[in-house]
Design brief:
Blueprint: E1 17-25, H1 32-43, E2 50-57, H2 63-73, E3 77-82, H3 87-97, E4 100-106, H4 117-126, E5 131-135, E6 142-144, H5 147-164, E7 175-179, H6 180-186, H7 197-207, E8 212-216, E9 218-220, H8 229-248, H9 254-261, H10 265-299, H11 304-327, H12 336-359, H13 366-392
Parallel strand pairs: 1-2, 1-4, 2-3, 5-8, 6-9
Antiparallel strand pairs: 4-7, 5-7
Helix pairs in contact: 5-8, 10-11, 10-13, 11-12, 12-13
């Protein structure tokens, strides 16, 4: 990746500022001024040009007036007013229109110690990483908060890891940074405009093979937090379900993001392989169960070899079609017939393995046949994945 040194332009545009620190606010007239002045003071110690952007989310108190006064008083402060609430909406708008090379956001309460800002942005400015996040869940982080929020935070991140197979440790810490060129590629794919925005952004970036840098932070909980925990939890669960569905069905064009940003193929490849293995496993489990049921049905009508042939044939056609669309993301009718023919060749190999298993079980009962054939079919499933990935759908990897 091209390094973004101090005051260098972001790829695809002209950057006049290196850092743009965005602070989304809603009715924060009490804390806004002190927080902005603290951030300005800290930015003055960094070796890059920087500014503070106050993103006012339709505040109804005196926040907007105070923000305008701060922007009028300080050249390195600007304010953007949005007519609707939503942290994700505010960050999308400001990040998409900023001329800075590296885009940062932090919560207005400054729960995160600002000393983490330099290690947060340095890997992005150097070009080493694409995104950076503060983490409250690293072993070397120092966090002060009550047990209720600790349990909720850890529980949520465990849920994200389990449901979406992520590697980053803390999705919701309000202390993140992203390269402008990366933001311009990934933001259009992020649907959420509220609290799930952070999680969705990180999941999409990770699935695209982008590098996420983590910084352990010193963090003190804000006792005056106005987050509606119940509503946020409900929205997050809906977001996880929606995002998981979109990833499984291949609706998100993440491969193009990887290619345009120029990350090494190996970095994205491991992520794609992991996704393909997981999706193939889901299809394989469904196919194996369907095969066992079909074999039992056909076995009532015919001999074991014919029942095995029919069950394998039906599941092979369905398996190839499912893997074509879900696992390898191939859409449309082009090459569909060729893929099915090649899939049937792989099926023939599987038929040979399972038929050989049957010949070795001559005289065994139905239950023994099903158990042995299911085990053989699992072996064939592994062989099938290798064949599909390296031969049938090789050009779509």
């Amino acid at each position: 990746m091209t390094a973004l040194w101090a005051d260098a332009p972001a790829e695809g545009g002209t950057a006049t500022t290196t850092l743009d620190v965005v602070i989304p606010v809603y009715n924060e007239e009490v804390t806004l001024e002190a927080s902005v002045l603290r951030v300005r003071e800290h930015l003055a110690t960094l070796p890059w040009s920087a500014r503070v952007t106050i993103a006012d989310n339709a505040s109804t108190d005196g926040t907007a007036v105070l923000a305008r006064r701060l922007a009028h008083t300080h050249d390195d402060v600007r304010v953007v007013h949005l007519p609707e609430k939503g942290r994700g909406r505010a960050l999308k708008h400001v990040w998409s229109t900023s001329d800075a090379a590296v885009l940062v956001y932090m919560d207005v309460d400054l729960s995160t110690d600002l000393n983490a800002l330099l290690p947060l942005v340095a890997p992005l400015i150097s070009g080493h990483s694409d995104l950076a996040i503060g983490s409250r869940l690293r072993h070397d982080s120092r966090v002060v908060r009550g047990p209720k929020r600790e349990v909720i935070s850890r529980g949520y991140n465990l849920l994200v890891k389990g449901a979406l197979r992520t590697r980053f440790s803390d999705a919701q810490c309000g202390f993140k940074a992203i390269r402008a060129d990366v933001a311009h590629e990934v933001l259009p794919l992020v649907e959420d405009d509220a609290w799930f925005f952070d999680t969705e952004l990180l999941v999409l970036a990770e699935r695209a093979g982008l590098r996420i840098h983590e910084v352990p932070v010193d963090w003190v909980d804000d006792p005056d937090s106005r987050v509606d925990i119940a509503r946020t939890a409900y929205d997050d669960l809906r977001g996880i379900a929606r995002l998981g569905r979109n990833l499984v069905t291949g609706r998100l064009p993440l491969g193009g993001v990887t290619e345009r940003l120029g990350r090494a193929q190996a970095e994205a490849g491991s992520g794609r392989l992991g996704s393909q293995v997981a999706l193939f496993a889901l299809v394989g489990v469904a196919s194996t169960l369907a095969y066992a049921l079909l074999f039992l049905v056909f076995r009532q009508l015919t001999g074991p070899l014919t029942a095995n042939l029919l069950a394998l044939l039906v599941t092979a056609v369905a398996n190839t079609a499912a893997n074509r669309r879900l696992t390898f993301g191939v859409r449309g009718r082009q090459d569909a017939l060729r893929h099915q023919v090649q899939g049937l060749v792989v099926f023939a190999v599987g038929l040979g393995v399972t038929s050989a298993t049957l010949w070795g079980l001559e005289g065994a009962g139905h239950v023994t046949e099903v158990v042995a054939l299911t085990a053989a079919n699992l072996l064939v499933t592994v062989m099938r994945f290798v064949a599909l990935r390296t031969w049938v759908f090789a050009r779509h990897r």
